[in-house]
Design a protein that fits this description.
427 residues, Growth Hormone, Chain: A, 2 domains, 14 helices, globular
Length: 427
């Protein structure tokens, strides 16, 4: 074997080793994400609402307890992302995972509604810190496969969230006080939440071993340097029209998801006369299509470009969303829900990756934080806007105009995006 052959073989082994290392890291991050999101899902639905009600909370107070963690995300996701750019993503990632692991222990001392709200607010820091930072970490290790890898990661975390909800219901129904859960029963469940969070932290410690990052410059850890980087990072990202318009696409699309999540079950049961199981099946099909097709759409965006895919994906969401109130047959609604799920996969597989395409490596955390904040605002606004529109221009049995208005927002956002982001960023 001559020198050139030896060099080629060494290069091939090196590349294979690097690829295997990336794959192992990515699999580990997926396991961390699944456990963390399952823990958070278990803490939220349906356990949280029942816990609040058992403490004497009325409907409005229950809603506030459920929503308060989203408020945490809206205000703290971007600062957490910027912080990761300044002090290192691995350190910030572990800060978020520590919240998943240890804050749920505080639920074990909750015996009043006020205490529950406070703990819930601080538990919201888990996703506020972890969410944007882990996306930046995935982008950093994914290279030119960021669309596909982000989509796979997102699908796994969605599955974790979906597992958490039925697990909570199962645990509640399995405890001795199933008919009327006691304070002790809820404490047991939140002990499981803490155990799952600790599991995600432990796996992360194994996966990220040797991958600790830090500021490159000697002054990177001084308070003055941290504040300067923090301020400059926020300014640069908020002045980048492409990042904001792309994030807005995900936010508006998520607004429609929130509206559909709140009112599709009501429309199916109250207007169409379906059973609660059929209503759940409609939402389940939409979610299943999103999870199954998202990695494929991510790979497609890596190879063929993201902007056009993102633009047309908004129409794939808008059209079935606007048509849903015009149909009352189960098969037709099932098909429309599935098409909407496909549109959601198209949009969400491209948006975060495109934001990453527009950013420098040292801005990824801030960009993902901005993206996550707009995402949360959209999701929180969806049910509120849809409910307001139904009350003002619709009725309890006629959702056609309200749904058409929300669909038009999707189309308008797509047109503004096309006009404001004119150049393709890479693929």
């Amino acid at each position: 074997m001559n020198a050139s052959d030896t060099k080629a073989l060494a290069s091939s082994i090196n590349g294979a080793s690097t690829a295997q290392g990336f794959l192992n890291t990515f699999k580990g991050l997926c396991a961390v994400g699944f456990l963390a999101r399952a823990s958070y899902g278990l803490a939220r639905t349906p356990v949280l609402a029942l816990f609040a009600a058992s403490l004497g909370a009325g409907p409005e107070a229950v809603g506030f307890a459920v929503a308060i963690s989203t408020v945490t995300g809206i205000f703290f996701k971007m600062p957490a992302g910027v912080l990761s750019d300044v002090i290192g993503r691995t350190r910030t990632l572990f800060m978020g995972l520590a919240v998943f692991a240890f804050v749920p222990l505080a639920y074990l001392f909750v015996s009043s509604y006020e205490a529950l709200v406070v703990v819930r607010f601080f538990h919201g820091f888990a996703t506020a810190i972890y969410g944007p930072v882990v996306m930046a970490v995935v982008v950093s290790v994914a290279g030119d496969k960021r669309g596909e890898m982000l989509s796979w990661f997102s699908s796994v975390t969605i599955l974790g969230t979906l597992v958490g909800a039925p697990l909570g219901g199962f645990l509640l129904s399995s405890l001795p006080g199933a008919q009327e859960p006691t304070l002790r029963d809820f404490h047991i469940i939140y002990g499981v939440v803490a155990a799952m969070g600790m599991g995600s932290l432990f796996i992360a410690l194994l996966v990220m071993q040797g991958r600790w990052d830090a500021p490159n410059d000697a002054d990177g850890r001084t308070l003055s340097a941290v504040w300067t980087k923090f301020r400059c990072g926020v300014k640069e990202i908020l002045m980048d029209r492409r990042v904001l318009l792309t994030s807005n696409m995900e936010g508006i699309q998520n607004l429609s998801v929130g509206a559909l999540e709140a009112f599709l079950p009501i429309y199916a049961v109250m207007v169409c006369g379906f059973s609660a199981f059929q209503a759940g099946l409609l939402w389940g099909v939409q979610m299943a299509v999103t999870v199954l097709t998202k990695p494929l759409m991510g790979r497609f965006s890596d190879r063929h470009g993201r902007q056009s895919l993102l633009f047309w994906g908004m129409f794939v969401c808008a059209i079935p969303f606007a048509l849903i109130p015009w149909f009352s047959g189960f098969s037709a609604l099932l098909l429309l829900a599935a098409i909407f799920g496909l549109g959601e996969a198209v949009v969400t597989s491209s948006a975060a990756a495109l934001v990453a395409d527009f950013c420098r490596e040292d801005q990824l955390g801030c960009a993902m934080g901005t993206f996550g904040t707009i995402f949360d605002v959209g999701h929180a606004s969806g049910p509120l806007l849809a409910g307001l529109l139904i009350g003002v221009v619709g009725s309890s049995t006629d959702y056609r105009i309200p749904f058409a208005i929300v669909a038009s927002l999707l189309v308008f956002a797509a047109i503004v995006f096309r006009a404001g982001v004119k150049t393709e960023a890479g693929k």
